[in-house]
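Components:
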Amino acid sequence: MDSARLSLSDARRALLAKEISASELTDACLKRITAVNPELFAYLEVFEDEARHAAAAADGKLAASSEVGPLEGIPIAVKDNLLNAGHAVTAASKILERYRAAYSATVLEKIRAAGAVILGRTNMDEFAMGSSTESSAFGATKNPWDVLRVPGGSSGGSAAAVAADLCIAALGSDTGGSIRQPAALCGVVGLKPTYGRVSRYGLIAMASSLDQIGPLAKTVEDAAALLSVIEGEDQRDSTTASEPPTDWKRRADLKGVRVGIPQEYQEGIADLPMGAAIEKAVAKLRELGAEVKEISLPHAPYALAVYYVLMPAEVSSNLARFDGVRYGPRAAGENLLELYRQTRGAFLGDEARRRIMLGTYALSAGYYDAYYRKAQEARTLVKQDYRAAFTQVDVLVAPTSPTTAWPLGEKFDDPLAMYLADVDTVSANVAGLPAITIPCGLLDGLPAGLQFIGPAWSEGMLFSVADCAERAFEFRKLKVSSQ
Amino acid sequence: MKLSPADIEHLADLSHLALGAAEKKKFEEQLSSILDYVNKLQELEKAEAVPTGTEAVNVFREDKVTACDAATRERIIKNFPASVDGLLSVPAVFSETKDDF
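Structure:
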């Protein structure tokens, strides 16, 4: 078997047992990248030499069995909005095309210290704004299941890289579903941790009250392994919390687990093929012993509207720094204001500019109360719904996306249709909750994702439940037989 | 919620974005349809909820200066569009004629 196809935990076992070397594993991934990346465009840049050096160093440690880190010799792909000192980091935007990171993100420092081999930077929607990876200024990533379809977004490059075995696991960021939705559309596992679980120091900010970094991986166990390396309090991100590390145990069944099915999510997909796929998956959870009941989140239908007010408001503020003075290209202008306007007009893409204008509108005099304040109030209501739900159930189960991957170009000129693709994922960000997606089956040959949402800091429970479901769904077997 | 061409003009100004005529037209339609959608928040007339964010507590730390090594410093300077002898070059903020004030 091609070792690039290994899961992280299998690769780790093989490395520790010296059945393969880190160099062989890295070479296997690089070989697949050479063969497949020109078509998929999952990576914007591959650090070939550097990866080989890191793998050789890992081999030294593995041979000596000393200082072997938890990710020793594991090839990891990194979304291109995470700073990596000395490397280009672009957020897939023209305005950062020539930017080179002055320092490294905390998560990069952590995976490197754990022994990971960083393979390269993956494509994304510009500044993580989008649900299809088509808004990248450098070209769209394709879905490995069908190259005429989108991989989802904004972490579409990371999701495609994991799905096509162009890495062992990857890092992404999730502001409104940007890890989970592409993971679902590409048939891999993706976790959006609790707000405050993972440091965002060195993440190019999009919407700071919502952004969270997390893993995309081939299995739940792998996502848990990656989270345990990147999580934890960080002085450099004051929103990180001093929670104990995530701990989880494998469970044989789901006996005693109270699973809530939010009606409001189900209604959205009742007439879609996804409805049947989710029903089938829920039936499996029942077979595993879960106690399933319907539950109501009355304000869930407002979560997307809340998101599309608050997120652009934060975007308009976070992207103000890209003004032609501090980073990247500087357009000519007869005065300072004209320089700002020309630089931002020329080098920021459509979606970034739309969201800046939308956020500016929501924050502008006369509209603040009707939009921003109203959305913050509604956000509290969304949070309260979840709090109430978790007094009755342990975990909520919902679709990750109302549809499977759609054809390239289909929603690109209709921003509202693109926004509606986030309907199942945004509320976990709005409420700051952890949520994991796992592939639960195929619909017309394309992966469908099942999402588990838990109370704050319940990642350990989510891993236990999702891992149990994952083994029952047997998706990886299905994947092999369908290829 | 229909935005007018004047609204778009005003928003582009506030956002510091130079837009072409075709873009203005396109954004006018697209932003109007998005605002129509988010206006469903107005249904929640009696929200009576405390806006999220007010429960946050300040997080303080020592305001210590930490050293920046030469390589990091070099990288920061290089990212500026313009620099002179290791100093960052920025456009003039004030003009010399009195008329501009």
